[in-house]
């Protein structure tokens, strides 16, 4: 086979018989392609092992035939826009091994995984609390209320919640996990859904308020955003209790 054919072949799983044939091929180019393939396979094995490990909390409840919802949030730090939460119930055969803490993924990867999670999940709920609610009750309480809203938005009631370092004000058993989005696939899936949902929302707000560059900063205090705040003042979606917005209201 030509090198181009071998390269294409090695982008999929191949039999041990074919690998043995390639190992005996004297061409340097073939051996380099084989080494690259073996590195990719080793990386995939490590990735799958880590993925299965991130189901350790879910498996405790799945073994009792209980439904588990992972809960996570995004948007606690920005100067503008809502805090958004997601509740995601994954099936026991969920196999998107690329799912991980949304902060560890590129925007492109999050965007690609978002519709796949929505398709494969048993159920997904979204919670949202506006800048006005955040100003009224503070960001921590608004976050908790949004998490409860996400759970209540589920059409199927879960038996237990896995939550990233928070206590949800709802009458369901809960497991609070520090750095939960890196320890539970259910929470990781929720983090991806919440992140992409909020990014899309802030992009839409960016069309309403183009001076603030919301499509690129998601409401965080970038230099361009702060310059617009100084020139034009806060919008209705700015958090009036957050510095430096509180000095401009």
Task: Summarize the structure in words.
The protein folds into 2 domains: 3-53; 56-204, Ribonuclease H-like superfamily/Ribonuclease H (Nucleotidyltransferase, domain 5, 2-Layer Sandwich). A 5-stranded mixed β-sheet has the order 3-2-1-4-5. The protein is of the alpha/beta class and 249 residues long. It has helices at residues 3-9, 16-23, 28-53, 56-62, 107-120, 131-137, 139-152, 185-208, 214-217, 223-232, and strands at 68-74, 83-89, 123-129, 160-164, 174-177. The longest helix is centred in the first third of the chain and has 26 residues, at 28-53. It contains 10 helices and 5 strands, in the order ααααββαβααββααα. The chain is flat, with a radius of gyration of 23 Å.
Care to count the β-strands?
Answer: 5
User: SSE order, as H and E?
Assistant: HHHHEEHEHHEEHHH
Strands side by side in the biggest sheet = 3-2-1-4-5
- Spans of 5+ residues with little confidence (pLDDT < 50)? none
CATH homologous superfamily heading of the largest domain: Ribonuclease H-like superfamily/Ribonuclease H
């Amino acid at each position: 086979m030509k090198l181009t054919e071998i390269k294409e072949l090695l982008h999929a799983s191949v039999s041990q018989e074919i690998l043995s044939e390639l190992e005996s091929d004297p061409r340097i180019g073939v051996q380099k392609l084989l080494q690259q393939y073996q590195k990719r396979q080793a990386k995939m094995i490590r990735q799958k092992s880590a993925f299965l490990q991130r189901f350790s909390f879910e498996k405790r409840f799945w073994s009792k035939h209980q439904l588990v919802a992972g809960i996570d949030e995004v948007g606690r730090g920005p100067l503008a826009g809502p805090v958004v939460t997601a509740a995601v119930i994954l099936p026991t055969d969920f196999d998107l091994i690329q799912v991980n803490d949304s902060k560890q993924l590129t925007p492109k990867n999050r965007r690609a995984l978002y519709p796949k999670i929505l398709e494969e999940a048993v159920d997904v709920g979204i919670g949202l609390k506006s800048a006005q609610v955040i100003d009224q009750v503070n960001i921590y309480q608004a976050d908790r209320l949004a998490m409860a809203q996400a759970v209540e938005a589920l059409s199927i009631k879960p038996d237990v919640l896995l939550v990233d370092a928070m206590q949800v004000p709802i009458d369901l058993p809960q497991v609070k996990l520090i750095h939960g989005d890196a320890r539970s696939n259910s929470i990781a899936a929720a983090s991806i859904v919440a992140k992409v949902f909020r990014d899309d929302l802030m992009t839409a707000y960016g069309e309403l308020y183009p001076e603030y560059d919301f499509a690129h900063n998601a409401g965080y205090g970038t230099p361009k955003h702060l310059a617009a705040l100084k020139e034009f003042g806060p919008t209705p979606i700015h958090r009036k209790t957050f510095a430096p917005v509180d000095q401009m209201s």
